[in-house]
Fold this sequence. Notes:
The complex is a heterodimer of chains A (about 110) and B (about 120).
Chain A: E1 3-5, E2 10-14, E3 19-21, E4 24-26, E5 31-38, E6 45-49, E7 60-61, E8 72-74, E9 83-91, E10 99-100, E11 104-109
Parallel strand pairs in A: 2-11
Antiparallel strand pairs in A: 1-4, 3-8, 5-6, 5-9, 7-8, 9-10, 9-11
Chain B: E1 5-7, E2 10-13, E3 19-24, E4 31-37, E5 43-50, E6 53-56, E7 65-68, E8 75-79, E9 88-95, E10 106-107, E11 111-115
Parallel strand pairs in B: 2-11
Antiparallel strand pairs in B: 1-3, 3-8, 4-5, 4-9, 5-6, 7-8, 9-10, 9-11
Amino acid sequence: AQRVTQPEKLLSVFKGAPVELKCNYSYSGSPELFWYVQYSRQRLQLLLRHISRESIKGFTADLNKGETSFHLKKPFAQEEDSAMYYCALSGLSSGSRLTFGEGTQLTVNP
Amino acid sequence: NAGVMQNPRHLVRRRGQEARLRCSPMKGHSHVYWYRQLPEEGLKFMVYLQKENIIDESGMPKERFSAEFPKEGPSILRIQQVVRGDSAAYFCASSPTTGMSNQPQHFGDGTRLSIL
């Protein structure tokens, strides 16, 4: 069975501090990993995906197959980064469906 | 492109009634996914449809829930004889793919269903 775990429901940092949102997964095979973000009063939107290996809004995430992790990182958090972040997984054995973690609410304080 | 459109945004039903949730995918997208989010939980997959076909319904409850995506018109998630436990946010997503897992899904705003 595939599973995504985000161990922190809430994460609070100060502006300018580094931030890391943790995501661990279990999947027997080669997964596709995503980070989705939901800003206040907005719809869920894709932030980044591991296959693109890109940085969006200063965020990066590296797939670590040895540790089965896909942590989201940003070196200097901004107040506008405050949002709900969801890690998600899909894979060949599960078709197109996404398996989501329970989400981490990030608050960046001034 | 207006994106994925869901309606209604909020739906209130009494126990035993039927709930119908609608989803119009993004223009050019022919694949629709429904997810449910219970309070304090993450999104859980329910069903994946293409036009006139159910591809994967492994996340659908065995009874009272059904989904369709007709040739014309929006996808419909139907819940018959609703119970309090059906209260949740229901999200629709769409993608332009032929079912490959590496294409991102685009989400709607969701329908908040409340059962009295």
